[in-house]
TrEMBL record:
InterPro entries, A to Z: Mem_transp_PIN-like (IPR004776)
Protein name as annotated: Membrane protein
Organism this protein belongs to: Cellulomonas bogoriensis 69B4 = DSM 16987
GO CC terms: membrane
Subcellular location: Membrane
The keyword Iron is assigned to this record: no
Organismal lineage: Bacteria, Bacillati, Actinomycetota, Actinomycetes, Micrococcales
Top-rank lineage group of the source organism: Bacteria
Segments crossing the lipid bilayer: 6-22, 34-55, 61-83, 95-117, 123-143, 176-195, 207-227, 239-261, 267-288, 300-319
Any GO BP annotation: transmembrane transport
Keywords attached to this entry: Cell membrane, Membrane, Transmembrane, Transmembrane helix, Transport
Predominant location category: membrane
Amino acid sequence: MGAVATALGTLVAIAVIGWLLGRFRLLGVGAEQVLARTVFAIAVPSLLMVTIAHADLHRLLSRLAVVTALSTAVVVAAAVLVTRLAWRRPAGETTVVALASSYVNAGNLGIPVAVYLLGDPVFVVPTLLFQLLVLAPVAFAVLDSRPVPQAGTSPVMPPPRRGPVRATTAVLGRTLKNPIIIGALSGLVLAALPWDLPEVVYEPFRLLGAAAAPLALLTFGMSLALPRTPGQEAPVKDLALVVGLRSFAHPVLAAGIGLALGLEGQSLLAVVTMASLPTAQNVLVYALQYGQGQALARDAGVVTTLLALPVMLLVAALLT
Protein backbone atom coordinates (compact mmCIF):
# COMPACT_ATOMS: atom_id res chain seq x y z
CA MET A 1 0.00 0.00 0.00
CA GLY A 2 2.93 2.32 0.66
CA ALA A 3 4.17 1.87 -2.91
CA VAL A 4 0.68 2.61 -4.21
CA ALA A 5 0.43 5.78 -2.13
CA THR A 6 3.87 6.87 -3.37
CA ALA A 7 2.86 6.29 -6.99
CA LEU A 8 -0.42 8.18 -6.61
CA GLY A 9 1.40 10.94 -4.74
CA THR A 10 3.79 11.26 -7.68
CA LEU A 11 0.87 11.56 -10.08
CA VAL A 12 -0.77 14.24 -7.95
CA ALA A 13 2.48 16.18 -7.50
CA ILE A 14 3.11 16.41 -11.26
CA ALA A 15 -0.53 17.31 -11.91
CA VAL A 16 -0.29 20.08 -9.30
CA ILE A 17 2.81 21.44 -11.04
CA GLY A 18 0.78 21.44 -14.26
CA TRP A 19 -2.04 23.27 -12.49
CA LEU A 20 0.39 25.93 -11.28
CA LEU A 21 1.80 26.31 -14.80
CA GLY A 22 -1.71 26.81 -16.13
CA ARG A 23 -2.95 28.97 -13.29
CA PHE A 24 -0.13 31.51 -13.59
CA ARG A 25 0.33 31.09 -17.36
CA LEU A 26 4.05 30.42 -16.90
CA LEU A 27 4.29 28.81 -20.34
CA GLY A 28 2.09 31.40 -22.05
CA VAL A 29 -1.48 31.42 -23.30
CA GLY A 30 -2.48 28.25 -25.13
CA ALA A 31 0.49 26.23 -23.87
CA GLU A 32 -1.78 23.42 -22.68
CA GLN A 33 -3.06 22.96 -26.23
CA VAL A 34 0.48 22.69 -27.59
CA LEU A 35 1.44 20.17 -24.91
CA ALA A 36 -1.75 18.21 -25.51
CA ARG A 37 -1.06 17.99 -29.25
CA THR A 38 2.53 16.93 -28.53
CA VAL A 39 1.37 14.17 -26.20
CA PHE A 40 -1.39 13.06 -28.56
CA ALA A 41 0.52 13.17 -31.85
CA ILE A 42 4.06 12.20 -30.83
CA ALA A 43 4.72 11.00 -27.28
CA VAL A 44 1.82 8.57 -26.72
CA PRO A 45 2.01 6.96 -30.20
CA SER A 46 5.75 6.44 -29.70
CA LEU A 47 5.22 4.92 -26.26
CA LEU A 48 2.48 2.59 -27.52
CA MET A 49 4.46 1.49 -30.56
CA VAL A 50 7.53 0.53 -28.54
CA THR A 51 5.54 -1.00 -25.68
CA ILE A 52 3.25 -3.11 -27.87
CA ALA A 53 6.07 -4.14 -30.19
CA HIS A 54 7.84 -5.73 -27.20
CA ALA A 55 4.68 -7.07 -25.55
CA ASP A 56 3.25 -10.55 -25.57
CA LEU A 57 0.27 -10.40 -27.94
CA HIS A 58 -1.54 -13.04 -25.92
CA ARG A 59 -1.48 -10.58 -23.01
CA LEU A 60 -3.09 -7.84 -25.08
CA LEU A 61 -5.82 -10.20 -26.25
CA SER A 62 -6.22 -11.86 -22.88
CA ARG A 63 -8.86 -11.73 -20.16
CA LEU A 64 -7.86 -8.13 -19.41
CA ALA A 65 -9.19 -7.06 -22.80
CA VAL A 66 -12.34 -9.15 -22.29
CA VAL A 67 -13.03 -7.56 -18.91
CA THR A 68 -12.45 -4.09 -20.36
CA ALA A 69 -14.81 -4.71 -23.28
CA LEU A 70 -17.56 -6.37 -21.24
CA SER A 71 -17.58 -3.92 -18.34
CA THR A 72 -17.53 -0.91 -20.69
CA ALA A 73 -20.30 -2.38 -22.84
CA VAL A 74 -22.49 -2.90 -19.78
CA VAL A 75 -21.95 0.72 -18.70
CA VAL A 76 -22.84 1.98 -22.18
CA ALA A 77 -25.94 -0.23 -22.28
CA ALA A 78 -27.10 1.00 -18.87
CA ALA A 79 -26.62 4.65 -19.89
CA VAL A 80 -28.52 4.14 -23.15
CA LEU A 81 -31.37 2.20 -21.52
CA VAL A 82 -31.97 4.86 -18.87
CA THR A 83 -31.45 7.91 -21.08
CA ARG A 84 -33.10 6.74 -24.26
CA LEU A 85 -35.83 4.38 -23.07
CA ALA A 86 -36.72 5.73 -19.63
CA TRP A 87 -36.10 9.45 -20.15
CA ARG A 88 -36.87 9.52 -23.91
CA ARG A 89 -33.88 11.68 -24.77
CA PRO A 90 -32.80 12.24 -28.39
CA ALA A 91 -30.07 10.05 -29.87
CA GLY A 92 -27.47 12.84 -29.72
CA GLU A 93 -27.98 13.54 -26.00
CA THR A 94 -28.08 9.82 -25.27
CA THR A 95 -24.75 9.35 -27.05
CA VAL A 96 -23.07 12.06 -24.99
CA VAL A 97 -24.42 10.54 -21.76
CA ALA A 98 -23.12 7.13 -22.81
CA LEU A 99 -19.71 8.56 -23.70
CA ALA A 100 -19.45 10.55 -20.47
CA SER A 101 -20.27 7.36 -18.54
CA SER A 102 -17.83 5.06 -20.34
CA TYR A 103 -15.09 6.98 -22.18
CA VAL A 104 -12.24 7.41 -19.70
CA ASN A 105 -9.22 9.69 -19.61
CA ALA A 106 -6.83 6.96 -20.73
CA GLY A 107 -4.38 9.36 -22.37
CA ASN A 108 -3.70 12.23 -19.99
CA LEU A 109 -4.28 10.18 -16.84
CA GLY A 110 -4.47 6.49 -17.77
CA ILE A 111 -0.97 6.26 -19.22
CA PRO A 112 0.71 7.91 -16.20
CA VAL A 113 -1.32 5.68 -13.87
CA ALA A 114 -0.25 2.59 -15.83
CA VAL A 115 3.39 3.70 -15.75
CA TYR A 116 3.72 4.91 -12.16
CA LEU A 117 1.10 2.84 -10.33
CA LEU A 118 0.94 -0.42 -12.29
CA GLY A 119 4.53 -0.38 -13.54
CA ASP A 120 3.73 -1.17 -17.19
CA PRO A 121 2.10 1.08 -19.82
CA VAL A 122 0.73 -1.98 -21.63
CA PHE A 123 -2.09 -2.15 -19.07
CA VAL A 124 -3.72 0.91 -20.63
CA VAL A 125 -3.64 -0.51 -24.16
CA PRO A 126 -6.89 -2.57 -24.01
CA THR A 127 -8.78 0.48 -22.77
CA LEU A 128 -7.28 2.79 -25.39
CA LEU A 129 -7.91 0.38 -28.24
CA PHE A 130 -11.51 -0.34 -27.20
CA GLN A 131 -12.30 3.35 -26.91
CA LEU A 132 -10.62 4.36 -30.16
CA LEU A 133 -11.65 1.36 -32.28
CA VAL A 134 -15.15 0.74 -30.90
CA LEU A 135 -16.62 3.51 -28.71
CA ALA A 136 -15.50 6.56 -30.70
CA PRO A 137 -16.43 5.22 -34.19
CA VAL A 138 -19.88 4.08 -33.01
CA ALA A 139 -20.49 7.44 -31.30
CA PHE A 140 -19.41 9.36 -34.41
CA ALA A 141 -21.67 7.22 -36.58
CA VAL A 142 -24.68 8.04 -34.38
CA LEU A 143 -23.85 11.73 -34.08
CA ASP A 144 -23.15 12.08 -37.81
CA SER A 145 -26.47 10.51 -38.74
CA ARG A 146 -28.72 12.35 -36.28
CA PRO A 147 -31.16 15.06 -37.46
CA VAL A 148 -29.59 18.51 -37.62
CA PRO A 149 -30.82 20.64 -34.65
CA GLN A 150 -32.79 23.84 -35.12
CA ALA A 151 -30.80 27.01 -35.63
CA GLY A 152 -29.78 28.71 -32.43
CA THR A 153 -29.96 25.60 -30.25
CA SER A 154 -26.21 25.10 -30.13
CA PRO A 155 -23.25 27.46 -29.75
CA VAL A 156 -21.30 25.33 -32.22
CA MET A 157 -22.44 24.61 -35.77
CA PRO A 158 -22.69 20.82 -36.09
CA PRO A 159 -21.21 18.99 -39.08
CA PRO A 160 -23.55 18.54 -42.06
CA ARG A 161 -25.71 15.46 -42.04
CA ARG A 162 -24.29 12.60 -44.10
CA GLY A 163 -25.77 9.48 -45.61
CA PRO A 164 -24.97 6.09 -44.04
CA VAL A 165 -22.17 5.24 -46.49
CA ARG A 166 -20.49 8.65 -46.30
CA ALA A 167 -20.86 8.72 -42.50
CA THR A 168 -19.27 5.27 -42.18
CA THR A 169 -16.43 6.24 -44.52
CA ALA A 170 -15.84 9.47 -42.61
CA VAL A 171 -15.77 7.66 -39.26
CA LEU A 172 -13.39 4.99 -40.58
CA GLY A 173 -11.10 7.61 -42.10
CA ARG A 174 -11.08 9.65 -38.89
CA THR A 175 -10.26 6.56 -36.85
CA LEU A 176 -7.41 5.38 -39.06
CA LYS A 177 -5.86 8.87 -39.10
CA ASN A 178 -5.72 8.98 -35.30
CA PRO A 179 -2.03 9.09 -34.26
CA ILE A 180 -2.67 6.85 -31.25
CA ILE A 181 -4.32 4.26 -33.48
CA ILE A 182 -1.40 4.47 -35.91
CA GLY A 183 1.09 3.97 -33.06
CA ALA A 184 -0.84 1.07 -31.55
CA LEU A 185 -1.41 -0.69 -34.88
CA SER A 186 2.27 -0.22 -35.80
CA GLY A 187 3.23 -1.85 -32.53
CA LEU A 188 0.86 -4.76 -33.20
CA VAL A 189 2.39 -5.31 -36.65
CA LEU A 190 5.93 -5.24 -35.24
CA ALA A 191 4.99 -7.62 -32.43
CA ALA A 192 3.51 -10.07 -34.94
CA LEU A 193 6.61 -10.16 -37.14
CA PRO A 194 8.57 -13.44 -37.02
CA TRP A 195 11.77 -11.46 -36.54
CA ASP A 196 12.83 -8.51 -34.37
CA LEU A 197 14.03 -5.12 -35.53
CA PRO A 198 17.37 -3.94 -34.12
CA GLU A 199 16.88 -2.10 -30.84
CA VAL A 200 18.61 0.96 -32.25
CA VAL A 201 15.53 1.48 -34.45
CA TYR A 202 13.34 1.76 -31.36
CA GLU A 203 15.57 4.12 -29.38
CA PRO A 204 14.26 7.46 -30.78
CA PHE A 205 10.67 6.31 -30.21
CA ARG A 206 11.54 4.99 -26.75
CA LEU A 207 13.02 8.38 -25.82
CA LEU A 208 9.97 10.25 -27.14
CA GLY A 209 7.64 7.80 -25.40
CA ALA A 210 9.37 8.38 -22.08
CA ALA A 211 8.01 11.93 -22.17
CA ALA A 212 4.39 10.75 -22.55
CA ALA A 213 3.53 10.15 -18.90
CA PRO A 214 4.98 13.34 -17.34
CA LEU A 215 3.80 15.56 -20.20
CA ALA A 216 0.33 14.03 -20.04
CA LEU A 217 0.14 14.75 -16.32
CA LEU A 218 1.33 18.33 -16.82
CA THR A 219 -1.30 18.77 -19.53
CA PHE A 220 -3.96 17.27 -17.28
CA GLY A 221 -3.04 19.66 -14.46
CA MET A 222 -3.00 22.65 -16.78
CA SER A 223 -6.44 21.73 -18.12
CA LEU A 224 -7.84 21.86 -14.58
CA ALA A 225 -6.71 25.49 -14.31
CA LEU A 226 -8.63 26.57 -17.41
CA PRO A 227 -11.80 28.66 -16.90
CA ARG A 228 -14.96 26.62 -17.14
CA THR A 229 -16.74 26.73 -20.48
CA PRO A 230 -19.72 29.10 -20.14
CA GLY A 231 -23.13 27.54 -20.45
CA GLN A 232 -26.02 26.23 -18.45
CA GLU A 233 -25.56 23.66 -15.72
CA ALA A 234 -25.98 19.99 -16.55
CA PRO A 235 -29.31 18.39 -15.56
CA VAL A 236 -28.87 16.98 -12.06
CA LYS A 237 -30.26 13.53 -12.82
CA ASP A 238 -28.13 13.21 -15.97
CA LEU A 239 -25.02 14.17 -14.06
CA ALA A 240 -25.91 11.81 -11.20
CA LEU A 241 -26.35 8.94 -13.67
CA VAL A 242 -23.03 9.62 -15.37
CA VAL A 243 -21.08 10.00 -12.11
CA GLY A 244 -22.69 6.88 -10.64
CA LEU A 245 -21.80 4.79 -13.69
CA ARG A 246 -18.38 6.30 -14.29
CA SER A 247 -16.95 6.51 -10.76
CA PHE A 248 -18.70 3.64 -8.99
CA ALA A 249 -20.55 1.16 -11.19
CA HIS A 250 -17.77 0.66 -13.75
CA PRO A 251 -15.04 -0.23 -11.21
CA VAL A 252 -17.43 -2.62 -9.45
CA LEU A 253 -18.38 -4.24 -12.76
CA ALA A 254 -14.74 -4.60 -13.77
CA ALA A 255 -13.92 -6.20 -10.42
CA GLY A 256 -16.87 -8.60 -10.63
CA ILE A 257 -16.21 -9.67 -14.21
CA GLY A 258 -12.48 -9.91 -13.54
CA LEU A 259 -12.99 -12.16 -10.54
CA ALA A 260 -15.48 -14.28 -12.49
CA LEU A 261 -12.86 -14.78 -15.22
CA GLY A 262 -10.16 -15.66 -12.71
CA LEU A 263 -8.12 -12.46 -12.69
CA GLU A 264 -6.10 -11.73 -9.58
CA GLY A 265 -3.19 -9.70 -8.31
CA GLN A 266 -1.80 -7.00 -10.58
CA SER A 267 -4.05 -7.96 -13.50
CA LEU A 268 -7.21 -7.45 -11.44
CA LEU A 269 -5.84 -4.22 -9.99
CA ALA A 270 -5.07 -3.00 -13.52
CA VAL A 271 -8.54 -3.50 -15.02
CA VAL A 272 -10.32 -2.04 -11.98
CA THR A 273 -7.96 0.95 -11.84
CA MET A 274 -8.47 1.66 -15.55
CA ALA A 275 -12.24 1.46 -14.95
CA SER A 276 -11.85 4.03 -12.14
CA LEU A 277 -10.44 6.75 -14.40
CA PRO A 278 -12.52 9.93 -14.86
CA THR A 279 -14.48 10.98 -17.92
CA ALA A 280 -12.16 11.93 -20.77
CA GLN A 281 -11.87 15.53 -21.91
CA ASN A 282 -12.43 14.22 -25.44
CA VAL A 283 -16.11 13.82 -24.55
CA LEU A 284 -16.42 17.59 -24.13
CA VAL A 285 -14.64 18.08 -27.45
CA TYR A 286 -17.14 15.77 -29.16
CA ALA A 287 -20.07 17.43 -27.39
CA LEU A 288 -18.95 20.87 -28.54
CA GLN A 289 -18.30 19.65 -32.07
CA TYR A 290 -21.78 18.17 -32.44
CA GLY A 291 -23.67 20.68 -30.27
CA GLN A 292 -25.00 18.04 -27.87
CA GLY A 293 -24.75 17.82 -24.06
CA GLN A 294 -21.92 20.32 -23.61
CA ALA A 295 -22.80 21.19 -20.01
CA LEU A 296 -23.08 17.52 -19.05
CA ALA A 297 -19.75 16.63 -20.65
CA ARG A 298 -18.07 19.57 -18.90
CA ASP A 299 -19.50 18.91 -15.44
CA ALA A 300 -19.00 15.14 -15.68
CA GLY A 301 -15.32 15.68 -16.43
CA VAL A 302 -14.91 17.93 -13.39
CA VAL A 303 -16.83 15.78 -10.89
CA THR A 304 -15.39 12.42 -11.94
CA THR A 305 -11.88 13.89 -11.93
CA LEU A 306 -12.33 15.03 -8.33
CA LEU A 307 -13.60 11.56 -7.40
CA ALA A 308 -10.92 9.62 -9.28
CA LEU A 309 -8.14 9.84 -6.68
CA PRO A 310 -10.18 8.67 -3.66
CA VAL A 311 -11.75 5.92 -5.77
CA MET A 312 -8.33 4.70 -6.96
CA LEU A 313 -7.00 4.82 -3.40
CA LEU A 314 -9.93 2.70 -2.28
CA VAL A 315 -9.37 0.26 -5.16
CA ALA A 316 -5.69 -0.04 -4.29
CA ALA A 317 -6.48 -0.57 -0.60
CA LEU A 318 -8.94 -3.37 -1.40
CA LEU A 319 -6.87 -5.14 -4.07
CA THR A 320 -3.30 -4.89 -2.75
